[in-house]
Write a structure and sequence with these properties.
Length: 288
């Protein structure tokens, strides 16, 4: 269960989605992965020369290939000393050096250990809303700078329209809530941000998104790009109550991080688009 301060203390997008940064919770989670799948191999006791050749080879490559240190630095050390030194490096290094280490272990750990390490690490990265995942043994950026900027822009631009910004803030909060993100309700809040803005523009607070967009077009005050309008009709169908689609989606548990992030970014972009089109049409949407 999340703490009060986490539920009610709004985070910036860059804090919520950890891109080019690693907070304490994420670093701890990633160290747990290294500890479980590498350090456990060293807890047999004794010194480095007493290890099996496979494990000793991983340490050799870690020290000489990855850290570029002299082998005699650890070649005769007690294994507990090796673990302590690795832990110290892990907690003192830069965020990007942590990801370098994850790639090293994904590549160098033997067989099943590597597969299990990658699986567990990706679970931790997702749980702590990192912008990255291990894909094919390499760190891949899942959340781009452009996506973050789209959400940030929508939050700024929607500030005069209280309920619109509230829905976006809530969507972001649910997406990044720890330890258990609420992706389903994040999706609902994202689409609600667009719907509430469309209703404001159409001057019809009770309309659905589809009806509000129809009314906006019929009023002739704003011309919506046909492809964008069609895309949002599809997205709204994905989340609407029509034909029980939303209920089915929630029951089947089909909503994960990818869907929630996509909807947050897409809806943020559409909010910015509608605000811009309304401004171009000379409409005053200020709610006070």
């Amino acid at each position: 269960m999340s703490r009060f301060s986490e539920r009610h203390g709004y985070k910036s997008v860059r804090e919520a989605v950890q891109r080019e940064s690693i907070d304490e919770a994420l670093r701890n989670a990633l160290w747990t992965a290294v500890d479980l799948y590498f350090c456990t191999m060293l807890r047999v006791g004794g010194t480095v020369p007493m290890l099996g050749s496979e494990t000793r080879a991983v340490i050799f490559r870690l020290w000489t290939k990855h850290f570029r240190l002299a082998w005699d630095d650890v070649s005769r050390k007690y294994l507990t000393d090796v673990i302590d030194r690795l832990r110290r490096v892990f907690y003192e290094c830069e965020w990007y050096e942590v990801y370098d280490l994850l790639e090293f272990f994904a590549e160098e750990l033997p067989g099943d250990s590597s597969r299990e390490f990658v699986h567990f690490t990706n679970e931790m990265l997702e749980r702590e809303t990192s912008a990255y995942q291990l894909v094919g043994g390499r760190i891949a950026e899942i959340t781009s700078q452009q996506e973050i900027e789209a959400v940030e822009a929508a939050l700024v631009e929607s500030e005069p329209f209280g309920v619109v910004r509230s829905h976006l803030e809530r969507s972001l909060e649910l997406y990044s809530e720890r330890p258990e993100p609420d992706y389903r309700n994040s999706v609902k809040e994202s689409i609600s941000a667009v719907e509430s803005l469309a209703c404001l523009i159409a001057d019809d607070p009770k309309a659905t998104l589809g009806k509000a967009l129809d009314k906006i077009e019929k009023q002739g005050k704003m011309e919506l790009h046909r492809a964008l309008r069609k895309a949002f009709d599809v997205l709204y169908g994905y989340t609407s109550d029509e034909d029980g689609i939303r209920h089915k989606m929630l029951e089947e548990g089909n909503v994960g991080r990818a869907e929630a992030l996509y909807m947050l970014v897409a809806c943020s972009a559409f909010v910015s688009y509608l605000i811009s089109k309304a401004a171009d049409a000379g409409m005053d949407l200020t709610t006070g």
